[in-house]
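User: Sequence in, structure out. Go.
Assistant: Echoing your sequence, followed by the structure tokens.
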Amino acid sequence: MHDLRWIREHPDAFDRGLGRRGLPPRAATVLELDRQWRELETAAQESQARRNALSREIGAAKARGEPVDELLRQVQSRKDSEAATAVRAAALRRDIDELLAGLPNLPAEDVPDGADETANKVLRTVGTPPHFAFTPAPHETIGERLGQMDFAAAAKLSGARFVVLSGALARLERALGQFMLDLHTGEFGYREVSPPYLVREETAFGTGNLPKAAEDMFRTTDGLWLIPTAEMPLTNLVAGDIVDEAALPLRFAAWTPCFRSEAGAAGRDTRGMIRQHQFEKVELVSITRPEDSAAEHERMTACAEEVLKRLGLAYRVVLLSAGDMGFAAQKTYDLEVWLPGQGAYREISSCSNCGAFQALRMKARYRPADGKGTRPVHTLNGSGLAIGRTLIAILENYQQGNGSVAIPEALQPYMNGQSVIE
């Protein structure tokens, strides 16, 4: 959500930010609705003040034994007028809130301009892609040859964009989740959380998933929504709260299944595990003071990078353009891992600073140490990492000529010492 007071003071900057998102100006529309709403609010206040004065006049007139019928009529008339004004003001306020709720966060100044991923900026490349004495296979071929990745069985159970993992690959998926959580909680200070996978509509609204991304989510018959990422419940842990400054930053980590309809991805990544309706992910969320969020963004990205480093996977860090960022983000780094089977870097993590955007939607604030008022917190989220895509990266980067797959040393303790899948 956007701060209406900020828009009043910075209408040109608001429109400029929307323009960088590829959207038309909205400040004039918002401010006209705001002007009408404030006029009604002012009229209601003035009417109430006059009604209070009339009430005092009625008391004085009664004390003098004078008739008060006309004064009573005026009071009732003002009550009726105020009620009608309140209805109109409430409708205008809903219009303002609905308009602002549908507008994305404004990009940070250092975010590159551009309409899509072609304007993204590669910041750094880490590690060297492996060289093979054979033509590297894609992960789905490797998994099916091992007899432990079954798309046909999943289609029989659930349809397209699902997979059944078994044997060592199922254990590898579990090992990756445990490894990532242990790293983030044991070394980086995140607090492990096991959140619900079903959330209310207001929870999805708070993170910006609703109303804009409704088609990409699954809804149950009783109105709950399956989480597309643990960002949703983790960030909303502070919804409606006032947190003491001394408690910040708050850092949460969760390993959950994620559910996405992939409504906008028809025809993309139809083979393999790259884009599925159900997948697992370790999510990182931070709640900070405004002045700390930029540094926390760099820290969170480094935490996600460390997973890739310890697994020995080559990757690059990409700063997303204004047109390629998610709805709630003001700045996003993508980590893209090298996949030999595709001969390309593919996204494996997004780390975003959302500023106060989600906090304003959730009404999440903190109380400064000086005790003077409250301020919106800043929220950040990132994948630390997407487990399915990390499994893909291991299969493709650690594949061997005989069809087996070596297990990275960091994961072997979680695999009961197993070093090769064959």
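User: And one key feature?
Assistant: The first helix runs from residue 4 to 9.
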